[in-house]
Every structure is written in C-alpha cells, then in structure tokens.
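Write out a sequence, fold above all:
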Amino acid sequence: MVTSLPDDALDRAQAGEPAALSLIYQVLSPAVLGYFTGRRADDPEASTQDVFLTVFSRLDSVSGGPRGLRTFTFSVAHARHVDEVRRKLRAPVLVGYEADGDQRTTDSAETVALGNLDAGGATGLLAQLNAEQRDVLLLRIVAELPIEQVAEILGRSAGSVKQLQRRGLLKLKELVRPNESEAL
C-alpha cells in the first residue's frame, strides 16, 4: 500500500490520468476519513467523498506538488466540517413526542458494551479537548500536516498552532494518566 504521493502525482492528475486520481484518493482518503471521524461528523464517509469531489473538480487550481495538494485537501475538509457545524446550529431538529408511537426498547448489554468501547478511546479523549486543540491535533497527527500547513488551514500563526498542540497534548496526557500530575 502506498502511503505517500510521488512528486509527479499532481501533474499526472491535472493531466487527467485516472491512475493518478485513484492514487491520490488511496493515499489521502484514510487521513481525511480519520479527520472527520475524530471531529465526530454525522457521516464521515460521505464527508470524505464530498471533499474528494471538490478536490478533483478544482485540481487545476492546486500548486505545490504533493504538499500543496495535501494542504488543499485538508483545507477543503476543514471547511466542510465548519459548514456542517454551522448548518446544525442554524437548523435544529425539533420533533414532537408522541407516546403512543414510541417503539423504543432498552438496548441489550452487548449493544451498550460495544457502544462504550471507544468511550475512553481516542475519540472520547479528543471530545474532552477544546475545539481549537482538537482541530490542531487532528490535522497534525491524523492528517500528518506540518505546522505551517495547519496554520494556513486554520488561519492562525505557526506559534499559535504550536501552543494549541502543546496544550492539547498536555491535556491528553492528563486525561490518560491523571495520577502523574498529582505526583509532581
């Protein structure tokens, strides 16, 4: 499995080579999917597909080789996530309760246990960070973007991204090993 893009992948994709488009998707889509999963998107797979539809339709405007393509891809992903959050805030779903039509039952112990598997996992831990720290850590760690690219995507300075990363990692350490901070 290829984990990085060759230097000529963007040029080949811009020329319309199907194999290059497929390679770009194979290399970048797992990280984009991880970004949306970490952000708890309603449908991470659909969001990932939407990002690549946009990226592939605008390939002619991308420059900077694989690095520029990666930055552009995660800029689109971040924008899609922000749009989703804004859409949810603007249009809350209000549903009336009808007791006669309520068909809910209690979940089985297995369903509850499987649902709680990630409660202390990465997604649960990320949920305890503030949104800015979570954005930075997802883009730095999951998307493997350098600090300068994360700063460009988030519209922040590189120093600000470094501080958010440091504080986010310290918070995660505190959450994972709460007794170590007490010993200091």
Notes: Residues 95 and 102 are 12 Å apart (CA to CA). The chain has a mean pLDDT of 85.
